[in-house]
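Contributing new records

If you add data, match the layout below exactly. Sequence lines come first and carry their own label; structure lines follow with theirs. Keep one chain per record. Anything else will be rejected by the validation script.
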Amino acid sequence: MAHKTVKALAAGALLYAARRYFRDWGTTKAESGGAMPGDELLAAPVLQATEAVWINASAEQVWPWLVQMGQDRGGLYSFEKLENAMGLRYHNADRIHPEWQHIAVGDVVRLVPRGWLGLADGLELSVADMTDGQSIVLRAQPRLPWDVVWSFRVIPYGDGRCRLLIRSRLALRHPAEVVVAELIGPARAFITRGMLLGIKRRVEGQVQRVVSAPVAGPDRHGVG
């Protein structure tokens, strides 16, 4: 009995230590504790996590990738093989699609396809707030059993560099939600980190291709 108790305490301590790390993965203290668009939608108590990454590109170059997010659009840019092994049918885009470059308050962003695990309508978040070129705030649809807000913000830093932040906030209405949220915390952090790095890789790759593209010389048949 004592041995099991020690193991349980050790596991709890490990989870707590890991939680302190992955809950605000890649952020500064000011970023993790500062305000984000969408914070005002949920009253305390909430469980909050913020992650961030530097991107060597302008905020304007990052924004189109955020606009086209969604299971039935550009994907989430995370771990496609893992997502599809779970039957989520993701096809993460590697380019900007003009046909997906519109999003407005009231639109929905699909995360899970219809019929997945018996969910007739799948899983969708609605656009609760948006500032063009800066932030998108998604919120769980009213019919869902939980209230969660997912905020994306891109912040320019000088010429050709920006910061991308993703924050999730879960309203804690029942004690059991705390336990569930803590248990799925590592998976949430893993997927969010995959999204951040996936967007970073795509945007920086796009910038590099533009820089490396051959510059057209003077027309041989015209005036040089």
